[in-house]
Design a protein that fits this description.
There is one protein chain. The chain has 14 helices and 14 strands. By secondary structure, it is an alpha/beta fold. The chain has a five-stranded mixed barrel. Helix 1 crosses helix 3 and helix 13 crosses helix 14. The N and C termini lie far apart (116 Å). The mean pLDDT is 84.
Length: 421
Amino acid sequence: MYFTIDQRPFNNPAFCKEVTETINKYAQEHNFPYTDLIRAKRTADGSSYEWHIYPNVLLKHLAVIDYLETHLSSHYPAEMKRLKRELNTSVPDLLTDISEMVSGKSFEATLKADCKNIYASAKNQSCYTGALIDYENPQSIIGLFIYKDACQLEGCKDYSDLVDKELLIHGEISYYQPANCFQLKATSINVLGDCTRLKNEKLWETECFDILRSWDEVRTYPEPKKPSRIGLVANIHTQGYHDFMQTLEKNFGKYMPEIVLFDITMDAESITSTLSNIKYTYEDEFDYVAIVRGGGDKESLIKLCEPPVLSVIHALGNVVTGIGHTDDFLLCGRAAHYDAGTPTAAAHFLKTMDSKFYSQQRRIELAIKSEETKARTGFQSDRERADYWEQAYKRLEADYNELMNDSQSKGLWSAIKNLFC
């Protein structure tokens, strides 16, 4: 289902083009195809185009309206004012229509879903609220309401333990307008096991056991290598990319390494394809390949740990991962050369490797110089030679003092005789 906005009243092809491009940029920043939100269709008479706006996506991304205004209002004030009015009018109308159709109505249903979160009510300790999701479409959320006295729980001791579990729930579904979502009032809940995300994680960990290292191994600094040329796999429209670049520029200053950017959508398929291309096209051109992406929902991040992604990260060998938050502990990090945990930490790691490399080079130079000095003088260093002659002087001084003492007590000839006999 979609609603239509005719482009002809705007009478500005440049504005229409920039609207589409700006929505595409917003979609990339939020990791969804922009064509899910808007598509341009030629009108029946072929003289112009019309926008088909998909409300189910727009309702999830109402912020795109402000995003458009921020980027376009200074250049197209009149057109942007009209478009905003069109969108702001269409969305409330749509919500009103939905509310009229489903508000106040409910039906019984049985649902199998993963429990994303659950909280005890602050006002009523016998009431819990939570969110149910589908693993393949984690943005589709159904509210979960539980009244302990009216719900039968099986396979679990307490309702607070339902998080990250796959549930079979029976209850009454209705539409909740304030949150613009459906809610399920549960009458029975059966815990089937771990949620889909955790089951996949365990399966992939077993499948890729031979290429995964321990967290101690992947978070221990490896042998340093100078980061002169870095392959960067990221999306330039995300905060993770900007955090990485800003930290890198701050750490290196005018000595910034060369960055070769692979600007992609940060999903499993794109990452796998890009890393394969790097391996077979660029060979050993990069000292490190950094994969950076900021945090997100756990269901989206776990998809970056699918076996094809793990395999190509391991095969490349010099990958540094900075994906998610420090407490995510993703499998893709265990397949990497080093797992930094976050984009910012990945940038710090590269600077650390640069510093350690120069320290190591300095130690090597000093060792070579020491060997050369020993070959020339018999001593490892000037300090060792000074210490030797200082000790020799002290021994000579002690012998002299002993000689003088003997000469005073025994006579000079007897002292000299004792010294050499």
